[in-house]
Amino acid sequence: MATNVSTTIRKLGRGPARGVALESRLLDRRLRHHPRSYIFQSALCMLALLAIILVVDVMLRAAIVVGVASSAFIVFMLPHSRASSPRRVIGGHAVAVAVGTALALLYAVPGWGDLAVMSPAFQNLIAVLAVGLGFLVMILTNTEHPPAAGTALGLVVADWTFSAALFVLVGMVMLSSIHMALRPWLKNLL
pLDDT per residue over 43-75, tens digit each? Predict the structure, then answer.
């Protein structure tokens, strides 16, 4: 009975256990045991993104940059998960680049480009197809990587450029290389 009351008090955040309950809701419990890992891996994530942006020397569409940043988060916060494997990081974004490029080419077809300019519904359809087909091909090729949706979307919502596609592919190779080199020293933080 005392255990149930104690548990209830902790859940409600009252009494002497209030600080413990509040801490467990606001902060990750593992932070206490591995604070250096949290700081190191967060800094590593920022440095890797900085290196990617400096080496490629472009700031592109928001969706693409968000996709790259989301991949960096997965790679450095969940370094031992399947989602952070090079096959999924590089492969997922490569699939997204291929699908996004293929759909962006529709704008070059005579008549379709004009339709896209005149019809926001057509643009929305192409954007939805880029994300949906990208995920389907990722699943079929076992390269599922959710942040790659930003890549497919970014390549079709604005004018497609070779530098945008190259930015993503070079960035993911760099990110995966850093990840593989440092993986033995990284911990899953989620």
Answer: 887 888 777 766 654 545 677 888 889 999 999
Inter-residue contact 171 to 12 (CB < 8 Å): no
Angstrom distances, CA of residue 41 to CA of 81, 171, 172: 15, 18, 17
Higher pLDDT, 181 or 11: 181
Angle between helix axes 62-77 and 148-157 (nearest 10 degrees) is: 170
Task: Please name the helix (run of DSSP H) or strand (run of DSSP E) that holds residue 126, with its range, or none.
Answer: helix 120-141
Cα torsion 186, 182, 53, 136: sign: negative
CB-based contact 127:156 (threshold 8 Å): yes
Prediction pTM value: 0.75
* Structure token pair of residue 186: 């990284």
